[in-house]
Amino acid sequence: MIVEPGLIHFGGIMRNVSASLVLAFLGLASGLAGGQPSQAVSPERQAILDYRLTATQADHLIAAMTAMTKYLVSLPDFRDRLAKSAKLTAAERIAQLEKDPTTTAILKQNELTARDYLVGVPALRMALMAAQGAPNSPNIVASPANVAFAKANLAQLKPKMDAADAGR
Q1: Tens digit of pLDDT for each residue in 126-152?
Q2: Considering the entire predicted model, what is its pTM?
Q3: Dihedral class, residue 145 (left if φ above 0, else alpha if ψ from -120 to 50, else beta)
């Protein structure tokens, strides 16, 4: 992920956490920035390109991301989890989310599957980045339909995503 690190307060403790670290826990970075030639499309990249965003889905993803971030950074071993998760396959990351009762509850509350979350969050994030004029990069994967959706809904989505990234 290409988000700058920030500081988030949880329980009075300052932890250096960025959206990229939280997403790395979920293993998103491993499939997106693999240094692949631009002609080769990994299954993870293709899943992001195929994912279709809607306003309802975006709201569910952002709400789940906020809750997931708060939960993950509250864990005493979250840094170890981040490191281990970055090495997992997509199927292993899905299984990891599904076996944790708290992450499963967060997903269920937001009407998402583990796959929806693991594909939808980067699809939304990168569509928003592209909609805001991020320079072309092999690390930004967004379908034209999702970029158009993000542009049309930028005024509503950006503040919500910023709040989620800030841990609010």
Answers
A1: 999 999 998 878 888 999 999 999 999
A2: 0.77
A3: alpha
- Two tokens at 11? 């329980």
Distance between CA atoms of residues 37 and 107, nearest Å: 33
Nearest to 42, CA basis, from 54, 34, 53: 34
Start-to-end CA span in the chain (Å): 20
Distances (CA, A) of 121 to 23, 68, 87, 159, 164: 9, 11, 19, 15, 11
- At residue 16, the 3 state secondary structure works out as strand
For 62-93, the pLDDT digits (tens) are 999 999 989 988 999 988 988 888 899 989 99
Beta partners for residue 9, in sequence order: 14
